[in-house]
Amino acid sequence: MQNTLQHRVRAGIAKWLPVAALAISTFGAASAAHAANPTDADLIKHGEYLARAADCIACHTSNKAQPYAGGVPFKTPFGTMYSSNITPDPVNGIGSLSEADFISAVREGKSKDGKRLYPAMPYTSYTQMTDDDVRAIRAYLLTVKPIAQQPPANALPFPFNQRWAMMFWNLFNFSSGRYHADTTKSAEWNRGAYLVGALEHCQECHTPRNVMQGLGSKSLAGAQLGNWTAYNITSDKIAGIGGWSDDELTAYLADGAAPGKANAAGPMAEVVENSTRFLTPADLKAMVVYLRDVPAQNNGETKPRFAYGEPIQSVAQIRNQALDVMGGGATPNGRTLFNGNCASCHGWNGAGIGGKEAGNYPSLLNNSAVGASTANNLTMVILHGVSRETNHQHMMMPQFADQLTDDEVAKLVNFTTTQFGNPAATTTAADVAKMR
Q1: Are 344 and 354 in contact (CB under 8 A)?
Q2: Whole-prediction pTM
Q3: What are the CA-CA distances from residue 335 to residues 2, 340, 367, 377, 430 (Å)?
Q4: Quick one: 163 and 213 in the same domain?
Q5: What DSSP string runs through 163-174?
């Protein structure tokens, strides 16, 4: 779940087909109802739900006191881009855009003046959204508070600052078109495909990118998002989510916690906080049904991330440990750092405190961040902490970037992965310094 580009980027996939054309309603009764002559109030309410599902607020809000006013920095290999203001302000926002202008921007990546948008705006996925859904989102956005704020100018070096060059990027990485239902699949599966691929645009974070930063061919096989890793969420039972139960997947999307599997942090925590926790139970179930059917991608993994972990068996193992001696001075080793900074919440044996309820202190055993093949996410969590608002409570873990040195963080990470997770996942003080 940090200013990480790919985590915030979002996408879309759907085309509403007449119910009469299919034996079933492809996208679900809730959406079909809003497509047929909704009142203004119904349209706006539905648009708010869709904007939540598309996670618009995450990419377009740099200051929570000014929602949708833009200014969020996206740091890419080609420079830094800033999100646009999508409040109804007529000068700085979308207030002067016609319906056709808005649809063109969302689905085709073209601004009112014909300039091409950079793909930090995930029009590559939103292109598959239906007319009705885009109109509903626009109707809702026109009701939010207008804010007269101009986002910072993009900081892109030549030639990446030449928008006309996007025509070549689009030639290789963008295909305009609406979602077409797979009539061999159920209505629930198709609804899930629309949610995962369009509104929630999961592939924007979880699919590896090519050298041009377009989406690669291994859909949802996992990708690197700056310093964070978006894990494999294909149906593979080892590398992906094939070993998760339906209830675990649903709980993770709704609350960001699936005890014995994972706890959302970083970009995924933001997705849960801003988007998936607001989805209806039916839509969450549809996403799970679709994800279950995504073609498996393994990438060479031999053991599930959640399958690692043995608790410390005796308190004697962690009592009165000797300090490392470096440069004539004593410094704490990884076990001592764990005792002093982590044990009070995660337990001296690493098994967590409070059981398996979503709001309790999670176990470090059978934990994706600790059992992953790299220590990136664990390092980021220790440095920057966790903040995740759920429908039930606020989940947080303090950050230790100000308390621990790079060397201390590296020692703590390496002790944690060796003791409780994947011992092959290690880091160095130099790696930690880069992640700050």
Answers
A1: no
A2: 0.85
A3: 28, 9, 19, 20, 20
A4: no
A5: GGGHHHHHHHH-
